[in-house]
Amino acid sequence: MDHHIAIVEDVAAIAANYREALQRRGFRVSWYSDKASATDAFNTHLPDLAIIDIGLGMDTEGGFELCRELRSQSRELPIMFLTARDSEVDIISGLRLGADDYVTKDISQEHMLARIFALLRRMEALRSPQTESQALTRGELRLDADRMTAHWRGEAVDLTVTEFWIVHALAQHPGHVKNRQQLMDAANVVLDDNTITSHIKRVRRKFKAVDAHFVAIKTAYAMGYSWHME
């Protein structure tokens, strides 16, 4: 395994703990203690996955800004927030900026490693050559899995990789309810229920940005979500 993981974390002891755990699993790991040093490194070469804290020293929103910059550099780079901040506002903000996952620092190392492996497996699958068309059309929706693009009524909808596969899973079988575990399996990620909910909220906002009347994603309370065609 030769994946390169970048950790952006201002507390040296925390960074060292995760770096050692990742190195034991065979990853190459770089650590940056602030936004400036991380930005300089990423402008030269992007990692295979970035793990970012939100507060970086005196820069309380530095991680958010770094995530925005990284997402503008690469739509497919897996980005994970690892932070002590667990408010719904922070979670939604992180996902809105394009992060694929958002976890708090009370997560176990094994659980975090499972999420990292899932994100990297997904990237490897995306890089595998496709032998046939992966286009999916459902009414006004068109998804192209080769290019990871989504269009609604002819307008592009800028989805992250995780968001794309959630929409793809829902749209494959309109009217069928997908629970949160099924959506995680489809996106090849390990997320908690709140994070899935935040992803769905963000997906709806993105579709509504191109069509204010978008209502195709329905909530089946206590069950999951489904895609409905007009």
TrEMBL record:
Origin superkingdom: Bacteria
Alphabetical keyword list: DNA-binding, Phosphoprotein, Transcription, Transcription regulation, Two-component regulatory system
Gene3D superfamilies reported for this sequence: 3.40.50.2300, 6.10.250.690, Winged helix-like DNA-binding domain superfamily/Winged helix DNA-binding domain
Key word Transcription present: yes
A GO CC annotation given for this chain: protein-DNA complex
Chain positions found as 4-aspartylphosphate: D53
Name used for this protein in its record: DNA-binding response regulator
GO biological process: regulation of DNA-templated transcription
Keyword Transcription assigned: yes
Domain OmpR/PhoB-type per the UniProt entry, residue ranges: 133-229
GO molecular function: phosphorelay response regulator activity; transcription cis-regulatory region binding
InterPro entries, A to Z: CheY-like_superfamily (IPR011006), OmpR/PhoB-type_DNA-bd (IPR001867), Response_regulator (IPR022305), Sig_transdc_resp-reg_C-effctor (IPR016032), Sig_transdc_resp-reg_receiver (IPR001789), WalR-like (IPR039420), WH-like_DNA-bd_sf (IPR036388)
Ranges where the Response regulatory domain occurs: 4-120
